[in-house]
Every structure is written in C-alpha cells, then in structure tokens.
Write a structure and sequence with these properties.
The chain is α+β, with helices and mostly antiparallel strands. It has five helices and six strands; from the N terminus they run H-H-H-E-H-E-E-H-E-E-E. The protein folds into two domains: 42 residues, Orthogonal Bundle (Arc Repressor Mutant, subunit A); 79 residues, Lrp/AsnC effector binding domain/regulation of amino acid metabolism (RAM) domain (Alpha-Beta Plaits, 2-Layer Sandwich), CATH 3.30.70. It is extended, with a radius of gyration of 21 Å.
Length: 164
C-alpha cells in the first residue's frame, strides 16, 4: 500500500481507534482486506504501538497528581541521552520521557497519589541517578486540551451572529 494511504490510515486511527476496518477502508478508498493487512504490518513494525482513549480524569472521582519534570543531564559518551532516558522510563510512575531542546534535556511526566509521592520520587529516585544534574518539577493543575481534544464543558459557538 502506498505511503500516503498508510499515513491516512494512521491519522484516522489516531483520531478514533474504534472505527471498523470497513469504515477506514471506505474513507481511504481501499479494500477492507488491504486495510487490515496494512494495519497488521504497522503493528508488526511497531508503528502502531497501542490503542487508547482520551479520558477527562477530572470527571472521575480518582485523585491523582501529575507532574512534568524538566531534567538536565550530562550525556554519556557513545550513548548520549539514551541510557539515562532508559533508566528513567523504567520507573513505574513515569508515564513518558521525551528528549527536548532548550535549557533542559529530558521532560518526564510522572503520576502519583499525592504531591509527597512525586516529591519522594524526584528526591530519592530521579535526582540520585548518575549524570542527572538538576530537576524542575511542575504540577499539572487543570487540563484544557489534550491530544487535540478540548475538555471544556462550555464549548459553544463563539462566533458573532451576523444578520442581513
């Protein structure tokens, strides 16, 4: 299957991973079997890693704290940032690790039951890793938009009404 059709399938799945292969096939102008095969190949190639839902956790009664931690590290010879990033992403409380440009090298997203749990993680586990120079922790207070999805309940048409 051509690259543009594979890209189209990926974009559709990213928007809504629950769509049937029949619907996706219609959308991209391919047969259902061709789409099934393309999706299987992309899963085998680890292009598609997982299917997930975007959840507004503020509506769920579970109390969780999320923090974004900026980490400055000294890169290691011949492996750069990869070895340190791997040590960090192996911790269960770590949700994501990203190499960044700018003042900090890694951005780490962590979840915990409360602020103290995250503080313990930073002080006892993250900052004690060899080659970690410094950390700056930011606690998420409210999510307005995530992965293209607006969380605001009051989403209504804000355009001015024009009458002839």
């Amino acid at each position: 299957m051509e690259t543009s059709k594979r890209d189209a399938i990926l974009k559709i799945l990213h928007q809504n991973g629950r769509l049937s292969t029949e619907t996706i096939a219609t959308m991209v102008g391919e047969s259902t079997e061709a789409v099934k095969q393309a999706i299987k190949e992309m899963e085998d190639e680890r292009i598609i890693l997982r299917y997930s839902a975007t959840i507004n956790w503020e509506r769920v009664k579970t109390e969780r704290v999320t923090a974004v931690i900026d980490v400055k590290v000294t890169p290691q010879r011949e492996v750069g940032f990869d070895a340190i990033a791997e040590r960090v992403y192996r911790f269960a409380e770590v949700k994501s690790v990203t190499l960044m440009s700018g003042a900090f090298d890694l951005q780490v997203v962590v979840e915990g039951d409360d602020i103290r749990e995250i503080a313990r993680f930073v002080s006892e586990r993250l900052s004690t890793i060899e080659h970690v120079i410094s950390t700056t922790t930011h606690f998420l207070l409210k999510t307005y938009k995530s992965d293209g999805v607006i969380f605001d309940d009051n989403e209504h048409d804000r355009r001015l009404v024009v009458t002839p």
